[in-house]
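Title: Comparing notes on inverse folding

I've been comparing how different people in this forum approach sequence design from structure. To keep things fair, I'm posting one structure and asking everyone to reply with a full sequence. Here's the target:
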């Protein structure tokens, strides 16, 4: 029974649910809609679902998340994208739990982009956090209405009926009579939807699925090649395109000779894509597209293009010189982002001080599946198939680029072969839409690996400067931290050079240390490439600086890393939001429910240390352990890394222990998967992640020069320890990344006495 389908409007009401089905959130479904004839538009191949009514059709009910077939099949809409994080499993399981549905009788359909589902951007580790209560309400509403339907059918009080302990059945407790959900569907559909206030949500002790391990819903299809990814999308009569982009951001074609490209068998034409209008946002980069009958021909034709480029102002960008500029910036006073006490007065007392600078380069997402999209433009409407993290951004961007209402853009969401934040930026979908309009045919745009790495929305480069004054006990009496990085805001606003409150709130203005005098500053930095969010965002460079510096202070004080870190965290307390940065947005979470709680940070540090054998494990020459603890996406994670150095002086990562407190856990298996993945991801970034530029053009172009950890280089053992908690659910996909690099580098120091202050480790000869 378990399977995934794509969802369109008519697809849900006509193709996915049959007449007589119970649709939660719609008290009345017009018969005319249920029996509406096909509009004649072709369906997608590769099992990716049918095209439905155009976006903006008024018959679609705003809160349709749950359906029930007369045969008892429960249909649950997944409105978030699936890229390995498990959200397409976890959210429906919340619904099924409250509904008392039999999980083996659940069918999941993937939503197209539509504002009526609420936020569909699968970024920021907030799918479960933002929709936990809503999904419970949808499930409880369905259960309540089914119970009411059974009570009316039996002419008994609803209070005598219940939808448990057996799932998918309503029982009249006094007599033992039962009715299956399917039998009750038609009757339940005629009932009014009860107000939220009247619902009785299940107590935690009765949860059937929440908190229990579960495999990804469509794991079988993924493992057997049946699942549909972006590359599988197909439209009858479609063309294939490969785009030669300007090598420098903001560049444009000065001259073009496409004569040799047009001689390649299968190549039909070349099409110019106009340069973007600043700010670039998610617009196509511009360039020249080769249109062909197949991908191979498009690639071969593109190689034969002869283009002279006008590279524009960013041709002066060189990453080595830019690094020096950032490092000079943070050595000077910058804009104060957060202040407590009087740092300058404390430094003036002449106490012993320690200073350090840290550097993290530009990083690429480099997900396994490069960008790809299919789009068809017809009569002012666009239908697209894409591995996107945000189908609503597709609607917005395609609508703006083509000058059509976003409601006229229908985006089908396929599986994503990895993303890490890259695929919430739909420039590649907009390219397909532009080319479809220009050619009058459906077009599939396929990016190569080189395109993916050379034309990414890069995780920003960052420099940090740290300074502390030490008291007689070795603890800091004053702490100053400065950072400078081209902000994400530069993507959307010209001349934006300072970090936003959101970026600074990722480990900078929320540093949870019990230090009487602490100031965080931020310096200006201009962007010369496209800047975007990558898994864990600004937490990467902020955690690297803060947690590395904490370990340096511990060594200076002659104290154990763990003991010193716990002393910095200080007594258990909930930090008043007034004592955090003025723009501290807490990842959009209500601070009342998700405060900065140092007891939870302390607990994960202690747990990771305990489970790793910290202070008890016998280490030999060239071996060492390091620890780091960080709060991000309102989740607390501590990581201990054990390393050993080989005969060539290269680091080998042995055991990794990560302790995570992410509040209420829906699927423990997904939490473990994400923490394990974060360790491998973090190891790749720390060892090899670096994007550089010469004269504005990116130097790297494939895994040969933008390395990833191979299986023999990844951590040998990864152990994940989940803190049992009744706190509200928090983020999971990203919080495991920030503490990894500093823990690794702290371990390297313990093993070698060599301090690592810049990434990647290849710069220090350690990888």
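Reply #1:
Here's my take.
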């Amino acid at each position: 029974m378990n399977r995934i389908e794509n969802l369109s409007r008519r697809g849900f009401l006509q193709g996915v649910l049959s007449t007589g089905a119970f649709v939660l959130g719609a008290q009345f479904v017009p018969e005319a809609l249920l029996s509406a004839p096909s509009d004649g538009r072709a369906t997608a191949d590769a099992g990716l679902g049918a095209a439905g009514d155009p976006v903006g059709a008024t018959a679609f009910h705003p809160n349709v998340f749950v359906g029930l077939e007369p045969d008892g099949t429960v249909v649950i809409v997944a409105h978030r994208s699936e890229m390995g994080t498990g959200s397409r499993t976890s959210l429906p399981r919340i619904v099924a739990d409250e509904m008392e549905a039999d999980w083996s009788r659940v069918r999941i359909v993937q939503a197209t982009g539509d504002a009526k589902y609420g936020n569909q951007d699968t970024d920021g580790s907030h799918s479960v956090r933002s929709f936990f209560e809503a999904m419970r309400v949808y499930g409880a509403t369905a259960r309540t209405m089914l119970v009411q339907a059974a009570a009316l059918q039996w002419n008994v009080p609803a209070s005598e009926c219940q939808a448990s302990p057996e799932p998918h059945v309503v029982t009249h407790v006094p007599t033992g009579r039962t009715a299956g959900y399917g039998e009750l569907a038609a009757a339940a559909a005629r009932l009014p939807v009860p107000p939220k206030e009247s619902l009785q949500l299940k107590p935690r002790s009765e949860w059937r699925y929440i908190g229990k391990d579960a495999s990804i819903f469509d794991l079988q299809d993924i493992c057997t090649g049946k699942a549909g990814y972006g590359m599988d999308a197909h439209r009858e009569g479609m063309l294939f395109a490969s785009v030669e982009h300007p090598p420098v951001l903001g560049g444009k074609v000065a001259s073009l000779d496409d004569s040799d490209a047009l001689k390649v068998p299968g190549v039909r034409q070349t099409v110019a894509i106009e340069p973007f209008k600043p700010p670039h946002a998610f617009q196509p980069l511009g360039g020249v597209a080769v249109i062909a009958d197949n991908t191979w021909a498009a690639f071969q034709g593109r190689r034969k293009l002869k283009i002279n480029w006008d590279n524009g102002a960013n041709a002066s960008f060189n990453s080595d010189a830019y690094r020096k500029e950032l490092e000079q910036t943070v050595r000077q006073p910058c804009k104060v982002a957060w202040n407590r006490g009087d740092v300058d007065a404390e430094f003036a007392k002449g106490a012993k001080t320690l200073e350090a600078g840290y550097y993290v380069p530009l990083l690429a997402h480099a997900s396994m599946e490069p960008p790809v999209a299919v789009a068809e433009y017809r009569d002012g409407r666009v239908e697209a198939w894409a591995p996107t993290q945000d189908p609503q951004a597709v609607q917005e961007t395609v609508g703006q680029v083509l000058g059509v209402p976003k409601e006229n853009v229908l985006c089908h969401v396929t599986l994503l072969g990895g993303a890490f934040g890259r695929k919430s930026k739909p420039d590649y979908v907009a390219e397909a839409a532009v080319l479809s309009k220009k050619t009058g045919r459906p077009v599939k745009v396929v990016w190569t690996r080189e395109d993916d790495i050379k034309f990414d929305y890069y995780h920003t480069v960052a420099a940090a400067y740290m300074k502390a004054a030490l008291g007689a006990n070795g603890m800091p009496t004053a702490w100053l931290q400065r950072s400078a990085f081209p902000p994400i805001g530069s993507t959307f606003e010209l001349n934006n050079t300072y970090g936003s409150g959101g970026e600074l709130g990722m480990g900078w203005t929320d540093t949870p240390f019990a230090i009487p005098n602490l100031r965080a500053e931020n310096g200006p930095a201009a962007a010369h490439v496209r800047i975007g969010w990558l898994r864990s965002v600004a937490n990467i460079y902020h955690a690297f600086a803060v947690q590395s510096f904490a370990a340096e202070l511990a060594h200076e004080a002659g104290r154990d890393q763990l003991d010193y870190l716990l002393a910095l965290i200080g007594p258990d307390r909930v930090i008043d939001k007034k004592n955090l940065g003025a723009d501290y947005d807490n990842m959009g979470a209500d601070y009342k429910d998700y405060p900065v709680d140092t007891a939870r940070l302390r607990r994960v540090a202690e747990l990771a240390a305990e489970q790793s054998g910290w202070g008890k494990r016998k280490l030999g020459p060239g071996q060492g352990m390091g620890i780091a603890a960080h709060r991000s996406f309102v989740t607390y994670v501590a990581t201990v890394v054990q390393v050993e150095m080989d005969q060539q002086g290269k680091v080998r990562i042995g055991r990794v222990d990560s302790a995570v407190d992410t509040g209420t856990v829906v699927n423990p298996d997904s939490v473990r998967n994400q923490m394990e993945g974060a360790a491998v991801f973090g190891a790749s970034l720390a060892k090899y992640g670096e994007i550089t530029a010469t004269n504005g053009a990116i130097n790297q172009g494939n895994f040969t020069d933008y390395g990833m950890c191979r299986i023999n280089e990844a951590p040998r053992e990864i152990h994940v320890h989940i803190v049992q908690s009744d706190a509200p659910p928090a983020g999971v996909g990203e919080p495991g990344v920030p503490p990894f690099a500093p823990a690794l580098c702290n371990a390297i120091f313990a093993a070698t006495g060599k301090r690592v202050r810049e990434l990647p480790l290849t710069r220090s000869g350690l990888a």
